[in-house]
Amino acid sequence: MSNTQFPKDFLWGGAIAANQSEGAHLAGGKGLTTVDMIPYGQNRMPIKLGQVDKVTQNVDEFYPSHTAIDFYHRYKEDIALLAEMGFKVFRVSIAWSRIFPNGDELEPNQAGIDFYRNVFRECHKYGIEPLVTLCHFDVPMHLVNEYGSWRNRKMISFFSNYAKTCLTQYKGLVKYWLTFNEINILLASPFSGAGLLFQEGENHDQVKYQAAHHQLVASALVTKMAHKIDAQNQVGCMLAGGNFYPYSCKPEDVLKALEKDRENLFFIDVQSRGYYPSYTKKVFAQKGIQLETNQEDFEILKNTVDFISFSYYASRCASADMNSSNTSAANVVKSIKNPHLPASDWGWVIDPIGLRITMNTLYDRYQKPLFLVENGLGAKDELDENGNINDDYRIDYLRQHIIAMHDAMQDGVPLMGYTPWGCIDLVAASTGEMSKRYGFIYVDRDDLGNGSLKRIPKKSFHWYKKVIESNGSVLG
């Protein structure tokens, strides 16, 4: 498909996160983090959603993050495979508790500093630019237990100290930074998104939006800091993207879709524009929210991001009649099933045109460059009799989305790059499963942690290599 040539400086690559890939959860002085407390199985979702008032580890349960795919010990092997595909960028995250095991120390853990420096140097050995997320769904548990996590204003200074350490230590090695991964997810999944637990009788919305305010101020402070430390730094925000479609053309459904989109875009409105949007006044009044702020907060928020990064897996559907019985449990962001779209094995609708719509919406709204930092198909992969994985379904999904991505660029939307999610199979954030695979590289590990951890390139590995070699013009 020669009509899909991309700009010569387009950043092709892939994405993983520390909490889903590194394992070695206490190695090198690392402290416990929120995801280390989230088990596989029936208790996973209540903890992720903050539906318990205290989180402890249970010896009878399996915690996938503790071993994950052992990227901590195998990063050289893994980065070499990514280089073989021709990656130009590799999105990773830093585990806060590797750098500051408790989160509130004044001095960092040298072993953690050294680990990530080695990872970034290994990337540069192959000409791969790291794209680094500072907080990807992992808050040090000490900060949860001692301070209540992001509900507490002290988190701003803790995070700023952590970020300053990373920005200083990795100056010259990293120039693309993201502050918070899928920042809007804290509304739907408060513990996994922001380390939030609730006490009986609390106004959950008050706690969540107060935490959001603290994160937004922290993000703006870090953005300012990053530009001061190194003028080459580019800082982005990160949205769990996907527009809400009205379920019907009924005006009430259209209004509901608008409201649901605003709920997600609120965070990016602040990070990109530098102020709270006018619609929040009514929303906060309806939800009984009274934010505790400092006057200087609103000056700090004026330090806006350089680009908008986002994930896109699926579009969503909204109706004025949405309720718990007619919305899908497939994702923490609730949606009515769209009858016009097919779905993955996990119930996520497949909607390439929705990516084009989302990209146009974001650029129309913000006029800042976009970066698609997560996209992919979670599917069950099986080895054939020759030990190969013929994942044509994944190739088809990615091909359709790359075409839609190119169509949006033809519409006039600037896109910096594309990093499909879970380029190496990893632990699924939603379910804790390994069987929900996204990668170009198969990892021999099952849902209960059994397996050799051997890496096996899939058919999609060789396909994506050709996509990158041709700069997107060969998608067959």
Automatic annotation (TrEMBL):
GO-annotated molecular function: 6-phospho-beta-glucosidase activity
Name recorded for this polypeptide: Aryl-phospho-beta-D-glucosidase BglH
Record key words, sorted: Glycosidase, Hydrolase
Pfam families per UniProt: Glyco_hydro_1
Coiled coil stretches, renumbered: none
EC number: 3.2.1.86
EC class: hydrolase
Organism this protein belongs to: Vibrio marisflavi CECT 7928
InterPro entries per the UniProt record, alphabetical: GH (IPR017853), GH_1_N_CS (IPR033132), Glyco_hydro_1 (IPR001360), Glyco_hydro_1_AS (IPR018120)
Residues at the active site: E374 (nucleophile)
Family in the record: Belongs to the glycosyl hydrolase 1 family.
